[in-house]
Design goal:
InterPro entries: LolA/LolB/LppX (IPR029046). It comes from Streptomyces sp. SID12501. Keywords: Signal. This protein has helices spanning about 5, 15-35, 55-70, 115-120, 140-145, 165-175, 180-190, 220-230, 285-300; strands at about 75-85, 85-95, 100-110, 125-130, 135-140, 150-155, 195-200, 205-215, 235-240, 245-255, 260-270, 285. It is α+β, with helices and mostly antiparallel strands. It has a single domain (about 55-290), classed as Clam (outer membrane lipoprotein receptor (LolB), chain A). A 12-stranded mixed beta sheet has the order 7-8-9-10-11-1-2-3-4-5-6-12. The longest helix is centred in the first third of the chain and has 18 residues, at about 15-35.
Amino acid sequence: MRDSGVRGVRGLRRGVRPVVATAALVAVGVAMSACSSSGGPDDEVAEPTGAARLDARTAAALHAVEKATELAGSARVSSSSVMGDLLSMRTAGVLGWAGEPVGRLSITYTGGELAESMRALNSSSMEARLLPDAYYAKVGDKFAAQMHGKHWIRYDYDDLADLPGGSGTYLKDQLRNTAPIQPVKLLLASGDVRRAGTETVRGERTTHYSGAVEVAALADSALKEQLVQAGVATETVDIWVNARNLLVKKVEQGELSSGRMSSTAYYSAYGVKVTVAAPEGGDTADFKDLLGNSEASSAPPG
């Protein structure tokens, strides 16, 4: 959801940047779709206190959404997102969070600095596969030509620590938490949320909840730290929940250091079977090897 992962790409050497940008773009695609937090669905959210305390009915409704989402285990998702001048993108696919996180996503870059970097390599869209130990990003032919004709990059989650500026830890967290829980956690932690009526969204009757998040006033320390690190001061969150207590739509808007952030996502087919397999090994390059080769080739002569 945030730009922490992609901000670290800006200062990279030319040879390293496309490989790291691909890592960041996949992670942001997952984050914008799932809007995951650094914690899992079982994590406790600190309840707001004082004047910001939620009314009991609203709090119970939001906790019911958390529980129903956890039990559903998977969903189809489509989203559109803008992150200031860094990136705008569309994402569609399936995500699973019952046990280990898995998923398949199609990501299309529609604008921004990182999108231009990828377009230069004829990679204006990307397929991503998330597996328990790693995720895979498929690149275009021009990019593949720089990897001896291999079309997939494998990113081991543990290897993401090699990314600059601490961004790798953020990307790993995003990719390991695929359930669409964070909008609900933000509303619960903020205390500033209201029931905004009922609406029909994509044919489903839903209840609309809307809230404003003042990061400095958040009761949940983990969420607060994550948002502060991403440079977020305020954010508005809207969710639309169906009769089964499942998200049908969410909208988030806020200000990042790179400019205005907005993200809209739709969810459907909860419980859908998510089957994901790793690409053929012969068509796959390893991120760690590529990063090492790029840094070596761009180093000044001794």
